[in-house]
Amino acid sequence: MPSWEYTVVTAAACAEAAGVPGAGLKAARTLRDKVRLREAGAAAGLPQPRFAEVAGVADIRAFAAAHDGDLVLKPADRQAGVGVRLLAPGDDPAAAWERTRAADDAKLRSAGFTPGRFLVEERLHGPEISAEVLVADGEVRWLNVTDKSVWPGPFPVEAGHTLPSPRTAALWDRVAEANRALVEAVGFRTGVLHSEWILADGTDPHLVECAGRLPGDAIVPLIDLAYGGSLVEDFVRVLRGEHPDRPARAARAAAVRFVSAAPGRVRTVRGADEAGAADAVFAAAATVAEGALVGELTSSWDRVGHVLTVADDAPSAEAAAVAAASLITVETEPVTE
């Protein structure tokens, strides 16, 4: 049962060898390689940005020359935004390439991990969403749409999530259809998918990427808070060959907001208890302690706290999460050595 990105292929291979339901080895390998995923999307006609595999600075410059506008540079095989870099016209592609190539997830991957490929693509602009889907025997059995917020800057680190998205029923239908097409394009069989999309012109879902595993960023507990039941339990049930019924509509809404801090050594941490006691808060925590080192905000691993809320509707849940997260402060001091 895959949770981390680095277990997706192994879980699929084990399931296939044992003759039990799973993602399917071919689908898992496609989902673990963003270049393969782009190629599968292009072959299926999925809306997505123009892209190219790159092996160095010259390739990035060539793509930039052929495609005016902003670019996205990323590793094809990491998670949590590790190594993802936004490039605007005038930015130095050589510096970006060196930083992206060196970005790593060494605490999570196996010691035998072999770094994969790199990808550059045109940057799309619009609201960002994700879709969490439960799939059984190649059929989408349940879907949720989540609104995403991202901190500004060259590193698109996720600042929060709110679900279910309050967008129109017509938009939900388009996202559902896009995910059915994605499942067919990669040949995914059974499990959970976490796909990310940009709504070009505010309405047209374009594929960013897709993970063949449970979502991170506390989206799983948010789903359970909003819909009831247990997404993990139902994940297990489809892997056992069952077809669990999940509520199509959420009874409530839930949100998470993350906390950031300036790079340096942590001097003080305040406000976690106050945030936890605020209205609508389900859970709150600071995830660093005094003396810890905080790096530049370049991926999800650089955040320093979070707040989860539950409310009657999405705007209320999001507003409560933003307000409570503002109560958590992490002060740092520069590191001189």
From TrEMBL:
Keywords (A to Z) from UniProt: ATP-binding, Ligase, Nucleotide-binding
Residues of the ATP-grasp domain: 38-240
Record bears the keyword Nucleotide-binding: yes
Domain of life according to the entry: Bacteria
Protein name stated in the entry: ATP-grasp domain-containing protein
SUPFAM superfamilies associated with the record: Glutathione synthetase ATP-binding domain-like
InterPro entries reported in the protein's UniProt record: ATP-dep_AA_Ligase, ATP-grasp, LAL_C2
KW Lipid metabolism (keyword) present: no
Family matches, as Pfam families: ATP-grasp_4 (PF13535), LAL_C2 (PF18603)
